[in-house]
Records
---
Amino acid sequence: MTKFKVAIVVGSNRRESINRKLAQAIARLADGRVEVKLVQLDDLPMYNQDLESPLPASVARFKAEIEDADGLLFVTPEHSRSIPAVLKNAIDWGARPYGKSSWGGKPAAITGTSPGAIGTAVAQQHLRQVLGDLGALVMGGEAYVTFKPGLLDDAGAIADAGTREFLQAFIDRFTSLLARLGAGAPAARAA
Ligand SMILES: Cc1cc2nc3c(=O)[nH]c(=O)nc-3n(C[C@H](O)[C@H](O)[C@H](O)COP(=O)(O)O)c2cc1C
């Protein structure tokens, strides 16, 4: 069975980020079907076109990690009803230099969590639009998670049965999409 390489992009640089914890819990639900790489965003400089040549080492590393992945899993908080600055900054770097975007044709899935009732829905809609404009293949459907005490257990797994079932279906759909697109297959990689 093909093991898909999935880059996890968490839109938070907070040490105790609930979105990073959720991302790690979702990765466990993929149950060996994916090899995950948590991509670092907080060492990327603030985007500035003056820095594009040569690319800072952290930016070159970030773009290589995105390009190397078969699929991208975005797990993001919502800041002021939109995409957190740390994530938008990373997306802008990924889109540059002109003609060398790392996003085109990349299968992507989006989820996120916040203590708020609509669980990052607005940020996810904005992210969906931006990634679509950049040519990523964003999986349809919605996955908004309200973060409540007890959602995760002490080992970091999803404790709430309903949420676990929902996110299991979410990650299963994403791995099916990767399989349908031929991501990870030797032929696709060589192309
Ligand atoms: C600058 C800022 C803006 C925020 N705006 C929103 C918001 O629009 N909607 C929301 O549900 N939560 C909002 N929050 C609360 C976050 O959901 C909460 O801080 C959450 O823990 C962030 O996720 P993280 O722990 O993964 O960083 C905001 C937090 C910050 C720091």
---
Amino acid sequence: MKVLVTGGSGRLGSELLPLLGSTTDVHAPGRASLDVTHRASFVTAAVDAAADVILHAAAYTDVAGAERDRDACWLVNVVGTRNAAAAAEACGAKLVHVSTDYVFWGDRGGYAEGDTPGPVRNYYALTKLVAEEAARRTARHLIVRTSFRPRQWPYPRAFTDLYTSQDYVDVIAPDIAAVAANALAIEDEVLHVATERKSVYELARRRAPDVQPASKAEAPVALPDDVSLDVGRWRALRAQLMTPGGRA
Ligand SMILES: NC(=O)c1ccc[n+]([C@@H]2O[C@H](COP(=O)([O-])OP(=O)(O)OC[C@H]3O[C@@H](n4cnc5c(N)ncnc54)[C@H](OP(=O)(O)O)[C@@H]3O)[C@@H](O)[C@H]2O)c1
């Protein structure tokens, strides 16, 4: 199976490439040869690669920067995903689009795939939600909502009152690689790929035992209470894929 990956130099993409390379034929052109905002070069790359799957992980991810430069964020996240959809249509590929838990408001947590998203808390989240709708325009698509942190906890403190199902990128990436490798056989249109609900402090302590507890009330921006995703559907699917005769 041939997989065209965008965003291969990013935090998630750089974890995904070696994982995907062991089971699929991966093409991961960098931005210099495949700028996702240029439709023609995206379509050409997909057709030349004869892609069966386009794993679209490229995005404008600077949440604070997006408030200052909305045009740049919209161009990469919305126009770039429209172009990914056009590229998938052009070569008959399935589009696996990487999205975020930020499409939910984050007041109650436990969000399932079918729950109504929004309202959103920032411009980045708005573009990611609109991008999901762009991805849905493709005949065959799979929207993967996820959330992850770098391999090492980067701060001295972590919030005890903010709940999430995110995990470290090296924990999440193998699951997303498995989704991509099995994408043609997955019937769902949306999948939540994350781990169990926990506080951000609890997550931080796993890799930074000395991290200090803090409250999100101290943060300079308003933060949600609970953005955790219901990952039951992915857990069931993963168990099925891992069974003898399964596909993963
Ligand atoms: N980080 C998180 O916590 C988080 C949470 C939920 C969902 N996500 C989603 O997960 C995906 C990957 O995020 P990440 O954290 O790995 O992102 P990242 O580290 O910021 O990397 C972004 C990637 O997109 C590429 N890119 C940006 N603009 C491009 C353009 N015009 N043309 C081609 N490539 C372009 C970058 O290439 P360059 O190296 O050339 O800049 C880089 O490879 C994104 O869809 C993001 O929205 C992230």
---
Amino acid sequence: MPELVLYNTLGRAQSPFRPMVPGEVKVYTCGPTVYNDVHIGNLRTFLFEDVLRRSLEYLGYRVTQVMNLTDVDDKTIRGANEKGVPLDVYTAPYIASFFRDLETLHVLPAEVYPRATEHIPEMIAMIARLVETGHAYEADGSVFFRIATDPDYGRLSGFGHGQEARRGERVASDEYDKEDVRDFVLWKGAKPGEPQWDSPWGPGRPGWHIECSAMSAKYLGATFDIHCGGVDNIFPHHENEIAQSECATGEPFVHTWLHSEHLLVDGAKMSKSLGNQYTLPELLARGVPARALRYLFLSVHYRQKLNFTFESLDAAAGALKRVDEMRFRLAHALEKPEATSATSAVTEAAERLATDFAAALADDLNLAGALAALFGFVREVNVAIEAGLREGDRARVEAALADVDRVLGVLDPEAWKEKADTAAEDAEIARLVHERDEARRRRDFAASDRLRAELTERGIVLEDTPQGTRWKRK
Ligand SMILES: [Zn+2]
């Protein structure tokens, strides 16, 4: 296998990847904040991390991947309070929809999905260590990281000492009594109406950044190989993770940092106000094939902005159709049993595919190059079918496709069919249930009865609860 080269955000350069233990890679991926349904911009990052995982495995590494679920923070607490339900009742459906989205897009599961609320003792222990060593201090029942004690602060993002930039800061600076405006919160003293846990500094809850430092240390050790996220995580989140972890453990935190670029919709940044913040169920309800969406995400390099348009989805579906059509012709072509020469055009094409595909992956996960190798192969097989296949060619082609599909995960139409149908149907039902809820809110009982009848006809049972309408199949 070729040597893997990755672009490390830490140092902003490409370098050969060398895991701490030969053949094994430990990866930490920042997961979703489960306060709403994730949008396709979030999904792009998770798809990138899936491709990373699959590429590492293809290149011969064993992967241990951890992805956290942020189930306590300002947004989850606000949402739970607005609905008047406990935090875990509020986050449960978003955790479920997140895993459903990953499954729909054929994302391979991580080994561990730790939840913030289940790791409060680990976070408290790390914060206590930082307080003991002078890297953190208490003020008003909250605890802050003292940036002045970390001379390396800023080496990932470039926003270090003496920099004014504080974009994305999640804590209002006037909210607590901080020594330095840049210091960030590790533990937030309890406020009325918020969930709280006991700590040496009184009741409260963790700040956002500390969970990733505490949970990565627990599952991967103080030092590990790869940490990923979207580019918007670089500052302050990942910068703060490095500061917390290295000051608490005295060890280097992560060797290689990988970040995927933003997704744009029709050339614009996604936003609620533009109405272009699509979720996967919304796209499925519009008839978008999940398989084409996965292909579209694969086809753009992770460090480039990806412009999502419905035309680009059509192009993705068209590309997949070319592979499907080749397979159809292949399935119906005749092999000549008498032609058994050791090398054939198909054998050579399959060898070229394997070499070029692995080389493209090893070149900083150049999936566009890997797909170019695939379509070169498809063209060569089409020519070979015209010229006449030799015995065993059909199996050779299928084996070559199955091999590259370990990374791509899009080539087998059968694998997508059943799941995609169910996902599209679920999305349609969720839409009807939502419409009925809206009709009831407007007191439009004619419309709500009509929608209920339609759902009943589809075999759906509705249950009205204080938290909204639940549905299940009969
Ligand atoms: Zn994180």
